[in-house]
Write a structure and sequence with these properties.
This protein is α+β, with helices and mostly antiparallel strands. The protein is built from ten helices and 15 strands. Helix 2 links the parallel strand 3 and strand 4. About 35% of the residues are buried. The structure holds flavin-adenine dinucleotide.
Amino acid sequence: VMPLKLNGFNETRWFRPLKLNQVLHLKSCYPDAKLIIGNSEVGVETKFKNAHYKVMISVTHVPELNTLKVEEDGIHIGSAVRLAQLQNFLKRVIAERDLPETSSCQAIVSQLKWFAGTQIRNVASVGGNICTASPISDLNPLWMAVGAKFQIIDVNSSVRTTLAKDFFLGYRKVDIKPDEILLSVILPWTRPFEFVKEFKQAHRREDDIALVNAGMRVYLRETEGKWIISDVSIVYGGVAAVPLSASTTENFLTGKKWNSELLDDTFNLLKEDIPLSENAPGGMVEFRRSLTLSFFFKFFLSVTHDMN
Ligand code: FAD
């Protein structure tokens, strides 16, 4: 494999570097350059939405962006890793590790099952999905809920780390500057009695965009014979310009006993936390409102089942 540089029409340039330092050098020369992996977002933008990018850097062959490593703090996932590769890797990890450690991995694998179809999953990347920051991304609510960290590298090779939950700033706007790229994602292990679950409702099960999706996580601890919520994350996709944390509900739940008595108050608070207005983009507002509540109910049932 050789590094490539191709010139196209309208002064378009396409690079295929083979090393991370070459990517960073190109990014310092062309801060507006688009990184390309699966082209499943960029291809749609250029073909159907009249977007025109002068400089494109294909990073499919850069080893530093294609790592998949099991580490003490979790799984380190290079930003160019394809979704199908991630699926296969996580399935192996789930088979090898203690079950309680891999609740997040199981949720990601289950969500990927209904992410696009095989062809897209074979080419589409983890970083492409994150950096596109689509409000309906199936994975971004999960990265936030599981406490994933994103490592970002700048053109001088300095790396900074940010929580997924702080990364999505606005509609398709993320915490990455023109002289930076996403390097990797750190997916943390779960602890015993920490449960993660994924949700997605679409018109069709296969290869469809979600109406609403979500990632939820709860960590329970036993105090005086009762199971108390020590920490909880509830994040919805498809209900706002960015994946939305139900913060008031999370605060309310923290410290409460995990039993069915908390359901009524939780549903009322969720309605306040997720203010889907009558004219919200995407329509079907009543249905989507009821999905946000029923996802939590399903989560409650699933965790309660796993505890027994
Ligand atoms: P690309 O198009 O190659 O790049 C996307 C963007 O991310 C570009 O702006 C690029 O510059 C930027 N980028 C990529 N890597 C980096 C990096 N390391 N640092 C900084 N910026 C970076 N999405 C869902 O969530 N769920 C679905 O079910 C789903 N179904 C789909 C079905 C179809 C038919 C199609 C066409 C798309 C679907 N998508 C879906 C959206 C899309 O496939 C995903 O968002 C995919 O993960 C994008 O990855 P990619 O490698 O193809 O991105």
